[in-house]
Amino acid sequence: MSKRPSAIIFGGLNTCSRALAAHLVPPEGDSLVENLRMVDKYSVAPPTTYIGAEFPKVLAKPNVEYRQANLTVPATVASCFDPPEGQDPYTYVFDFSGEIQWDRPEKVQIASTLKVARSIGLEAARRKVTAYVRVQHPYYDYKEKGPTDETAEFKVDGLLDAWWHETLRALGAIEDLNLVIVRTGFVYGPYVDYGLIPPFVAVSACYGHMKQPMKSIWAPGKFPMHTVHVEDVAGAMWACAVWMAGVGGRKEADKIAGVKLPFLNDKSKAEEVEDMAPPTQTIVAPLFNIADDSQMTMVELGTTLANTFGAPFEFYNFLINTMAKFKLEDVLEDINDTHVTTWTEMITTSNPPVSNTHYSPYMDQYNLRRHPFAASNERVKRIVGYTLRHPHFTRDTILDMVDKLKAEGSWPQNNS
Fold first, then answer.
1. How confident is residue 323, by pLDDT bands cut at 50, 70 and 90?
2. Nearest CA to 19 among 366, 225, 290?
3. Can you list the alpha helix ranges (DSSP code H) found in 350-394?
4. pTM over 0.90
């Protein structure tokens, strides 16, 4: 039996890296990797970010090492690739690094996303790692109709979108980096507290508790919002690493699954930010979407969530729809007042009460904006051979998430 690879996971403790770690080194069962090192800016003992109830079991495994580090320092990044004495070099690298808050200044987006990922990528190329798998969150706006495969047209909306996409170009331009990009749908699942879905689940629970309809400010709301379970993000990342190792490197991978990464930023930035790839450079990299088979629209997503908690799903009137389109901030205060007041009541009257939770129905401007995103999963199934563990976004998958949160004490248990 050949020796299993060793892997490093950079960043993502606040997004998907915990799920990947549990996939690679399950609390019960055989490990897929010989050794796993995780690196992020957060502490895990004590935790300085939410880590969920299951992740400490992964950290307790003897072949798992967690390292708290400042990844904005290239020398620190380089040292993270050095294996412990007597251990083989790391062969798979999974990169979840990057800023996920939409309202951070541009200099933070550049420093925390572009520069960090490029630093990791350069070191990975220097070390000749077998596979470097980079996550790409759904930070794009797609057309409401048309192709949904990896070559579909899209645009970026705001600094967060622009710099995450620019990071892909920077990584794609690194010579000899065995890069594979995994572009996700909207992520949900147990212990996921980032992105659009978790606050919408909490909002739905609020309306179920109030026994009132949950209403959308966007009508008719039929734009795509494709979803994916966090365990399928983890599974696809691993499958893509194994695929890259099997095809024998970047050149062949580009031939099989390469996609052009267009320049979507301000051209003047290329003169200011040295880590950017030239705007005129044609960059191709292997890219796979990972989303479930539900192919949800906003209406279907809202209906499924609301109905899970016993609430109908409806739309606000034309006046509110129009206000939301032009002055979203004017409707935010009233909406959040209802949500937060109800949630506070739910967690304080819960049996037992919820004393500490990272989950909230609070909606900021980014949450309430339209985010049309579509991602066909045909390619990752056909080329990589990946099989979804959770092919549909349903009442059962939502309740599985909620039940696990209730068990850890971070979700209210009410009679409603």
1. low
2. 290
3. 365-368, 378-379
4. yes
